Amino acid sequence: MDSAAQPLCPTAVERLNRARADLRMGLPVVLQGTAGAALAAAVETLTPTRLAALAALGPLTLALTARRAETLKARAYDGDLARVAVPEHANLGWLQALADPADDLRVPMKGPLRTLREGPADLHRTALALAKSARLLPAALLVALDGAPPAGLTQLDAAEAQTSMAAAATLRPIAAARLPMAAAEAGRLHVFRPDDGGEEHYAIEIGTPARDTPVLVRLHSACFTGDVLGSLKCDCGSQLAAALAAMAAEGAGVLLYLNQEGRGIGLANKMRAYSLQDQGFDTVEANHRLGFEDDERDFRLGAALLKGLGFTSVRLLTNNPAKVRMLAANGITVAARVPLKVGHTRHNAAYLATKAAKSGHLM
What sign does the dihedral 122-124-128-133 (CA atoms) show? Predict the structure, then answer.
């Protein structure tokens, strides 16, 4: 239904956010493509009852990212994903073992897996992107629809959903207030809310930074374990404290706090990655075994926050060249990169080495 003609009906972005919530609760959603429609459910939240109901509709297909398929030795004929034909009597435990690498070392052989190479994969690709954006394991179960979908389910146009998920979110300022801090009594916290229903992001002004000269900026992704708990497995908490101290010493700066926990995969998946690291895998390998890329964050958000506050030029406190490139590509001049080499411990030595060797961080 056209939301412009029916203003009380959900827009494409609103339907997308509704679909994310449905997947997190274990509900399937309807995906419509050029070659037909399918029901898609997230394997992580699926129940035996709903699995049986989906199986009654026809042959099931399990969509996995190419990263996860590589671990399972499943052929990814579609390049970025694999479509696994689900055996007729497969149960939920079988599906979840393919989705979650927790027991890969204990039960390494899960196949042989038959993957599909004929037909379109657009609905499967959309389902995986939806699961990722809902901070769920990137594994989705699909069944083709022959006829009308069950009543009450959220329906998405696959191409429209992909376009919405790829687009940069529009951030709206919601509230701002004076916030005296240890770093500066003259502080101000700004809250921005994205139009896609995602988490809010924060911009914290230290002092009264000028808009006409390059401002000292830290683009910091939320790290509950490091920022709040003082985790020694990463250097995030130390970097946050050091960035605020540098801004305090200079008398001005901007901290951009992006709610993109675990390099954009969410806290639950980050803990899954930590468990894999305890099995001997490094940070990047753990992400890949889970089905994610090295880094799933969207640094365009940082550029949007800066523009929203009237800043166009920065001196960026970072060891990550990707942040420099992304800000520059989105209209922010990076006048200088300021190294931030703190928080090295025996617990995170391997983690920092991996960031340098595999993620290009300048450690």
Answer: positive
Of the candidates 197, 195, 179, the one whose C-alpha atom is nearest the C-alpha of residue 187 is 179
Residue 179 sits at the vertex; the CA angle it makes with 176 and 185, to the nearest 5 degrees, is: 140
pLDDT tens for each residue of 322-331: 999 999 999 9
Residues 95-110 have pLDDT tens digits of 999 999 998 887 776 7
Could you say which of 178, 297, 298, 300 is catalytic? 297
Count of residues for the chain?
363
Q: How far apart are CA 1 and CA 12, in angstroms?
A: 10
Query: Which whole number is the average pLDDT over 177-181?
Result: 95
Confidence of residue 112 (pLDDT cuts 50, 70, 90): confident
Measure the CA–CA gap between 201 and 199, rounded to whole angstroms. 7
Query: What's this model's pTM, rounded to 2 decimal places?
Result: 0.91
* CA distance linking residue 32 with residue 37, whole number of Å: 4
Whether the CA torsion 329, 249, 245, 205 is positive or negative: it is: negative
Annotated active-site residue 297? The verdict is yes
> What are the Cα distances from residue 16, in Å, to 67, 79, 264, 272, 299?
25, 25, 18, 26, 21
pLDDT value of position 2: 54
Q: Alpha-carbon distance 168 to 196, whole Å?
A: 9
Spatial strand order of the sheet with 252-258 comes to 171-178, 187-194, 201-207, 252-258, 215-221, 313-317, 333-338
**Which of 300, 363, 354 has its CA nearest to residue 332?**
300
C-alpha torsion 147→132→19→103, nearest 10? 70
DSSP 8-state class, residue 62: E
* 136 closest CA partner among 73, 33, 64, 237: 64
Q: Which of 295, 298, 300, 315 is catalytic?
A: 295
Angle at 358 between CA 357 and CA 360, to 5 degrees: 75
